[in-house]
Amino acid sequence: MIRNELTSKNGHLIIGGVDSVDLAKKYGTPLYVFDIEMIRSQIRKFKAAFEENDLNYQISYASKAFAVKAIYQVMKQENAHIDVVSGGELFTALEAGFPSDKISFHGNNKSYAELEMAVKNHIGVIILDNFHEIELLSDVLQSNNASVNVMLRLTPGISAHTHKYDQTGQTDSKFGFDVESGQASQAAKAVLNNKQMNLLGIHAHIGSQIFGTEGFIMLAKKMMEIAKQLKEEFNYWPQVINLGGGFGISYNQDDDPISASEFISKIAAELKKSDENVPEIWIEPGRSIVGASGYTLYTIGSRKDVPQHLPYVSVDGGMGDNIRPALYQAKYEAVVANKMDEKDVETAHIAGKYCESGDILIDKQALPKTKPGDILAILDTGAYGYSMAMNYNRNPRPAVVFVENGQSKLVVKRETYQDLISLDCDY
């Protein structure tokens, strides 16, 4: 979110109709805060774009971006699908009361126990990633006398223009069946010959934090070509083509993401060039649904001034609650939540409290005059903040609060020191 799009009142940052300084006082810091109306709005924008382009569709929230019971309950309210990538995410979704038939299960190394859990809970579709998994699922289905919908995850040879760790559609990837070498065809044959697996469709995901439409247009074209090949080879036409996710968001003023309507309209135009019926189109937005809705509130503490260098302004969190700057060199922007009306007077490093020199949340941030006790709000932290949080240096993970219609609700409690040792055993 661009800083000038923020709402303030009496010099305080307002989130979902709630004063952020009051949130910091009530729940403590560090604190993850989510504006739930922003999440609902983004889901509805994706739905409207599909409907405007007359495509059958499903919006499947990629919950690895942020997976707690409360967000699954919001997705249920919005009649969305979800995808999970582990037994833990699946368990959380089921405990939240999310409908199992609207769950997709991803992952490149699902265990027997995870697959059995999925089958026993009658989830909507298991997205197969490799030949070992086909064999493993076959064993699970035989042992449980069950059947299940599956999709094949393919690597179509399309590489997104993004960070190298976020690229997943190219041939040399740990994910999926390679199309070029014939693995995809072999996998389709194996699944179609298994009476306990119903091949619902094909899936591909080309990367994350993608700003342009070119890669998605290429993917839509490629997936329709693959579908035609499957029809020619096996007389099979997919019910679903899943184009994955990866739609970027604006973390700073240099980012220029595509809108939902632009993305959908362009892939719809490409899909409709085919002389075949277009299958139901699924997408898996994660970051683009929750990313911009999230804020992390910190309390400013110590300061270090070094002659001829930028000062270091430290906060009471850091890489333990947001590893992305250290891991991906991700760039964020921040505001001082209790000084929204004050002008910036300096540029500083925003440093975390963790015992690592690389624990810098923001390398260069314009700030008004600050003092210990001020509240810093880092913007757009809704995706991959809490979900990647850790207890490094034995720091408890922050609480999570949802705000909507001027009300706040605690949805994840702050960890305590006792929580940190709850699994430790004496020697």
TrEMBL record:
Superkingdom of source: Bacteria
Pathway annotation from the record: Amino-acid biosynthesis; L-lysine biosynthesis via DAP pathway; L-lysine from DL-2,6-diaminopimelate: step 1/1
EC number: 4.1.1.20
Catalytic center residues: C355
Gene Ontology BP term (one): lysine biosynthetic process via diaminopimelate
Binding locations of substrate: R287, R324, Y328, E356, Y384
Pfam families in the cross-refs: Orn_Arg_deC_N
A Gene Ontology molecular function term of the record: pyridoxal phosphate binding
Similarity remark: Belongs to the Orn/Lys/Arg decarboxylase class-II family. LysA subfamily.
Name of the protein in question: Diaminopimelate decarboxylase
Organism: Companilactobacillus halodurans
Gene that this polypeptide is encoded by: lysA
